[in-house]
Amino acid sequence: MNTDLSQPTARIWNKDFIIIMFANAFAGISSQMVTPLVSKYAVSIGAPLTIAATIASLMAFSALISRPFSGAVSDTANRKTLLLITYFTTAISVGCYTFARTVPMLTIVRVMDGISFSFRTVATFAYAAMSLPENRLGEGIGYLSLGTIFAQAVSPSFGFWLSENVSFAACFLTASIFSIFAALSLFFVPNKTLNTSNMPKKKFRISFDNIFAKKLVMYTILIGLFSCGNGLVNTYLALLGSARNIANISLFFTAYAVLMIVVRPLSGRIVDRIGLQVILFPAYLIFAVGSILIGSANSLGMIIVAGVLYSLGQGSGTPSIQAHCVKKLGADRAGVASSTCLIGQDLGNTVAPVIGSFVVKKFGYTVMFHGFAVVLAICGCTLYAIQRGIEKRDKIPKLVP
Questions:
Q1: Residue 15's CB: how many other CB atoms inside 10 A?
Q2: Would residue 375 count as lying in a domain?
């Protein structure tokens, strides 16, 4: 396999990919402006805290249920049409938060937002795979995610500022406008470059193979391990900061996002030229060290270093696995490849905080983060070693008697 990173290859920066990258960024800004505010908004309309937290988590749950179907649809429908529908649906669902003044209404809107999110992320990934040269798919997916990273870095603060200085409605409507921009940007790309005319024609039907790729099940688990760490941080980092009097703990996310801008494209390029193993084994170990630092942290400096390590670990590992899975299935099944991977991501984000709550209650934050680090390092490296062994075995030609 070629390991020369300087060797010229096919061009990533074509018109289609650039437009989908900006559309993805606009849609990410829309979602990230709203998501951190949902529980606070629910409380403001009279929901108890437990109900507010449940409503906030409904997005991940509804996305999890929708993932398999979104993959099947992405691999059979015209991907430009599907993206247009999902971006406009996102704009509608985000805008509807403005009018959700009761708990039942907010619950319905949150579920609608989660379903739209599921189809949008899968369709975006599948379309991008059509626009990238196969030998630079990992690098391209790394660049695609930069819009999401930018949204994670700036959108929550912008959303909080709007809600506190203007109103919740102003935040929701502004977020809706960003999704409309995402949809409108697709009109600048000729339809002939977005359809699937160069791929085998498929009819949409529901079958297990169309909604879940069995050969990717181990990669679903491997991505889920990274997402467990993200779920624990998103849920408990602020609480840990309050318990240990660590001010400005949100700088963890700033450090994470800033470094990610470099990490994702570079890691994708390495995977394309050398292989997934060069990224994944170190990624789990680095991510585990970051979790240990969080569990032991008593200062902001340790938290910032942990953010850097999380970025190096998860930021390189997750997109590399996604790109590898698309290569294994081929561009015509990029939708089911993406949805299969994202099932693991949704499961990790949903399950880990619940399990973590029992550990924190009985043993505290240190044991939870340190225990996760041990599980992550052992399970991540062991399971990927097993998967590599299986793939190597399958490549060995079988002797015909």
A1: 12
A2: yes
Last residue of a domain, one of 165, 197, 229: 197
Task: List, in order, residues 6 or more apart from 77 with CB less than 8 Å away.
Answer: 204
Q: Report the alpha-carbon distance of residue 309 to residue 290 in Å, rounded.
A: 5
| Domain of residue 101, residue span | 12-197
The DSSP 8-state label assigned to residue 194 in this structure reads T
Q: Mapping DSSP to helix (H, G, I), strand (E, B) and coil, where does residue 34 land?
A: helix
- CA–CA gap between residue 310 and residue 383 (Å, rounded): 20
Whole-number Å distance between alpha carbons of 302 and 294? 7
Residues 37, 56: Cα–Cα separation, whole Å: 9
CB atoms within 10 A of CB 299: 10
CATH number (domain holding residue 281): 1.20.1250.20
User: Rounded to an integer, what distance in angstroms lies between the CA atom of residue 393 and that of residue 385?
Assistant: 12
3-state DSSP helix/strand/coil percent for the chain, to nearest 5? 85, 0, 15
Look up residue 19 and give its two tokens: 């437009």
Task: State the virtual CA torsion across 287, 292, 298, 304 in degrees, nearest 10.
Answer: -10
Per the CB < 8 A criterion, the answer to whether 294 and 237 are in contact is: yes
Residue 399 pLDDT more than 50? Answer: no
Terminal Cα-to-Cα distance of the chain (whole angstroms): 31
With a pLDDT cut of 90, the percent of the chain lying above it is 23
Torsion, CA 68, CA 73, CA 74, CA 77, rounded to 10: 170
Contact 137/272 with Cβ under 8 angstroms? yes
pLDDT in tens, 196-239: 444 444 554 555 555 667 778 888 899 999 989 888 887 778 77
Q: Record the pTM.
A: 0.69
Residue 126 near residue 74 (C-beta atoms within 8 A): yes
